[in-house]
Each structure stands twice: as structure tokens, then as C-alpha cells.
């Protein structure tokens, strides 16, 4: 793997995906490498997604403009252009392991849509978030409009998406986009690693089942049945005994 846009590292059972492209931009190489990375997670029990110089400036418009431009006016060609992008973020959301986004600096557009596909979002005090697609004359189409209402509520999801205005770390915590704000990037990354290491100690089937129920978003009664069915299939006396011993 070339690692031009993303780098995958492991520390015991915790994997870290670092966006290493300039300003965390997401161009054609990024989407290809994301597919490769998601296929290489193997025995990882938790995943951290972070940036290098900042989290992400969003879609690399310069490197994507020609191919996207050539597909305009042709629905099937345009869908084919977006398909690898959807595969990357839907793949993150569908992972059976917990995914932590650790955001420092700017998190723009596709970056915000990526963190909405994660399970837990942390940031440093310098973080800034925006969903500016309307200012470019388009609608966000990588999952943000679908996931953000469930994270921050319809009101804030609409304000972010319709105005394109950025919010700071404190506002992001206030509305529930992130659950913790750390003072600086170093403390942020240490906290993400600590949390991921803890998650890696928990029973993987329990985490997978919990994610499936949360992700399905079924009506109350159906969601209850889904959780019961999962436990009936995967719960074992040995597993319970081991948990009590811990």
C-alpha cells in the first residue's frame, strides 16, 4: 500500500488510521487507500481515526474536479464517481469494532461526514467543524445529512448544513457532536488511545451487537427484539462467568 493519503498502524489490538495527505484532503487516492485499509484491520478490536497536520480539509476539489466534471449530466457516471466515497464511509460505519474519531484543527465537509460515521468523537480545543457544501452549490452527499440529525438533532443538523457556518470545539461539545474536548492535540491523542485500549478489553461480540442495534435505528419494539435476538444467539454461560471474574 502506498500510504499517500492514509497510514494504518497497530498498537496491540488498537488500530490507528491517520489521514496523512496535505491538510487531510480526500482525493481519488484517499478513497482507494481507504478501501485497502478497511480490509487490513484484521484482528483489531478498536480503531482510531485522526489527522496529521489537521483532521481534514474535506474533499480534494482540485484532484477530483476533472473526473467529477466529466460525469456531470450523466446520472450513472456521477453515481459511479461517488460510489467509492460512499463505500469508504459506509464501510467505517459498518465496522463491527468501535471507531473513535480524534479531531484536531479543521474538520470540513467530507471530514465532518466521516466523523459522523464513527461511534465516538473526541476533539482538542483548537478543533473547528463545518459542513459547507451549500456554499459550493451542492448538497452534502456522503452520509452527513443522514447521520447528523441522530447525533446533534434536527435543529443543529439543519443549521450546520443549511448555513455552512463553522462551529468551534465548545459548541460541538454543547450540541453533542463530540463528547469530550481535550486541551491540545497531544492530550487528545493520548485520551483516544486510552479509550481505545479500554474498548479493546471488552467482549467483542457484545460491542458488535450493541453497534448493530444502535446502527439499525429500528422502532422501539423492533429494536428491543433485535437486542434480545442477538443475546440469545451469542450469549454463553462461559462468557458470563468470565465477565463476572473480571
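-> sequence recovered:
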Amino acid at each position: 500500500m502506498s500510504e499517500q493519503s492514509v497510514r494504518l498502524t497497530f498498537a496491540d489490538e488498537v488500530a490507528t488510521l491517520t489521514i496523512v495527505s496535505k491538510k487531510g484532503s480526500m482525493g481519488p487516492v484517499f478513497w482507494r487507500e481507504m478501501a485497502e485499509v478497511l480490509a487490513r484491520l484484521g484482528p483489531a478490536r478498536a480503531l482510531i481515526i485522526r489527522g496529521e497536520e489537521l483532521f481534514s480539509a474535506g474533499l480534494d476539489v482540485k484532484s477530483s474536479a476533472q473526473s467529477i466534471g466529466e460525469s456531470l449530466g450523466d446520472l450513472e457516471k456521477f453515481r459511479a464517481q461517488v460510489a467509492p466515497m460512499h463505500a469508504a464511509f459506509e464501510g467505517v460505519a459498518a465496522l463491527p469494532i468501535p471507531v473513535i474519531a480524534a479531531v484536531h484543527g479543521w474538520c470540513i465537509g467530507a471530514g465532518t461526514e466521516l466523523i459522523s460515521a464513527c461511534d465516538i468523537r473526541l476533539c482538542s480545543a483548537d478543533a473547528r467543524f463545518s459542513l459547507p457544501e451549500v456554499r459550493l452549490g451542492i448538497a452534502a452527499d456522503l452520509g452527513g445529512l443522514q447521520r447528523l440529525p441522530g447525533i446533534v438533532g434536527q435543529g443543529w443538523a439543519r443549521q450546520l448544513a443549511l448555513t455552512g457556518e463553522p462551529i468551534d470545539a465548545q459548541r460541538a461539545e454543547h450540541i453533542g457532536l463530540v463528547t469530550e474536548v481535550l486541551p491540545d492535540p497531544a492530550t487528545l491523542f493520548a485520551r483516544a488511545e486510552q479509550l481505545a485500549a479500554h474498548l479493546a478489553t471488552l467482549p467483542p461480540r457484545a460491542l458488535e451487537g450493541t453497534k448493530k442495534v444502535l446502527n439499525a435505528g429500528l422502532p422501539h419494539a423492533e429494536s428491543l427484539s433485535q437486542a434480545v435476538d442477538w443475546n440469545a444467539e451469542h450469549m454463553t454461560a462461559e462468557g458470563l462467568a468470565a465477565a463476572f471474574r473480571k
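The radius of gyration is 19 Å.
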